[in-house]
Amino acid sequence: xxxxxxxxxxxxxxxxxxxxxxxxxxxxxxxxxxxxxxxxxxxxxxxxxxxxxxxxxxxxxxxxxxxxxxxxxxxxxxxxxxxxxxxxxxxxxxxxxxxxxxxxxxxxxxxxxxxxxxxxxxxxxxxxxxxxxxxxxxxxxxxxxxxxxxxxxxxxxxxxxxxxxxxxxxxxxxxxxxxxxxxxxxxxxxxxxxxxxxxxxxxxxxxxxxxxxxxxxxxxxxxxxxxxxxxxxxxxxxxxxxxxxxxxxxxxxxxxxxxxxxxxxxxxxxxxxxxxxxxxxxxxxxxxxxxxxxxxxxxxxxxxxxxxxxxxxxxxxxxxxxxxxxxxxxxxxxxxxxxxxxxxxxxxxxxxxxxxxxxxxxxxxxxxxxxxxxxxxxxxxxxxxxxxxxxxxxxxxxxxxxxxxxxxxxxxxxxxxxxxxxxxxxxxxxxxxxxxxxxxxxxxxxxxxxxxxxxxxxxxxxxxxxxxxxxxxxxxxxxx
Length: 480
Ligand SMILES: Cc1cc2nc3c(=O)[nH]c(=O)nc-3n(C[C@H](O)[C@H](O)[C@H](O)COP(=O)(O)OP(=O)(O)OC[C@H]3O[C@@H](n4cnc5c(N)ncnc54)[C@H](O)[C@@H]3O)c2cc1C
Hints:
Layout: E1 3-10, H1 14-26, E2 32-35, E3 47-51, E4 58-62, E5 67-68, H2 73-81, E6 86-88, E7 94-98, E8 105-108, H3 118-135, H4 149-152, H5 157-164, H6 168-182, H7 191-200, H8 204-208, E9 224-231, H9 235-238, H10 249-256, E10 263-269, H11 274-277, E11 280-286, E12 297-300, E13 309-315, H12 317-322, H13 327-342, E14 351-356, E15 389-391, H14 404-422, H15 429-432, E16 468-470
Parallel strand pairs: 1-2, 1-9, 7-11, 9-15
Antiparallel strand pairs: 3-4, 5-16, 6-16, 7-8, 10-13, 10-14, 11-12, 12-13
Helix pairs in contact: 1-14, 2-14, 3-6, 3-7, 5-6
The structure holds flavin-adenine dinucleotide.
């Protein structure tokens, strides 16, 4: 027999910490054990120290989850409650774009990038308008129940976009978007899943806009006996856990079809923000150019202390290629590519750092799980309780699925489900909303009514460009 506790939470990422916090807030006397495989909390969020000058002083950057936006209510609440600091993402200045067959580098200053002329811009605007309308009909709670599910079921983001985007730059922008959002090429992301994912974030433009937005055995042999378990493991890792009795086929079916992205994040620290001196924002959107370079999206990563840096991602097929090289070779490839946009000063950084998330055994990729084309008929089972096991983690979120905010929402929801069974008197009907025990489950999440059409997708993809940078240092929360 192992140590007896009321609730075991697997994983001390944002979701596990949020679940623990909600359990402890509502029922302070219950005994909770959080099992974390790493020697740190935070999961796919991770703040690291890097040299910030030639004399060896250090500053801090996020090598995992970084940006948050005002519409991400769950993470904004945590920031407010725990007095975390945020600071705005620098975005002013000329931006670079390299899309289309010619791989020509173009610049733009406002929100409208050069999509190869008016025709490309019009195509993109129409396509985004169409996606916004379709997205409102696809709920992340059950994408397969959508009236557009049949039309989209076998489509990838690439195959569906090819039907509407004959302009090469506009078409390629969907690939950069898929890499930035999922760490995967557009040719392997289900279109139905993309729309459901976007809906959970309040709409396609909110996701892509560019302006400021049971017991578990431990290695030590220690075992726990718990009344309930909350798992926050991403699907790719959950499948490695042995369940007795085994998970239902429906749950395995959906979890087996949710791979993690191939995604590495790099931070390049410089003596000065030379790009700003030239009027550049530091923002780059590129198809990688001739020969498939490592860049996809790049942003200014100057810290709140003012240390100049750039941040970017090597994603999808590019990550497969570059993660096989040595770190020095990746650095060389990245700074050489940066210099083609921003000038030769890019070749001489103070420091280059990267993390290949696909090689991290306790994430197995990043930034989040996505669905490949095929039946999403069982997607609703992703958060269905299994006996005494409840599922959290950002992949189960109904708002901002895949993001830190979604992880928090899911953790809070799973905690309420457990309390509803363990301490029913402590849970109101209001708190039950959106849980497995909601007597009136909503057809669509809140976010789907707030969609708005922004003219262009390609400029800077993702909440990536929007936002407010946050230092979430969970150690200071004291939950682990
Ligand atoms: C490079 C990168 C950039 C990102 N950018 C952003 C961004 O800008 N904005 C944003 O909102 N989101 C971003 N994300 C996504 C965000 O970090 C995740 O959505 C969030 O961390 C998910 O939280 P989670 O708790 O669901 O899962 P995780 O953070 O993955 O936490 C799961 C925990 O489980 C632990 N674990 C794994 N296996 C076991 C086991 N067998 N036993 C016990 N514990 C185990 C892990 O160590 C981990 O601590 C990014 C992620 C990455 C990697």
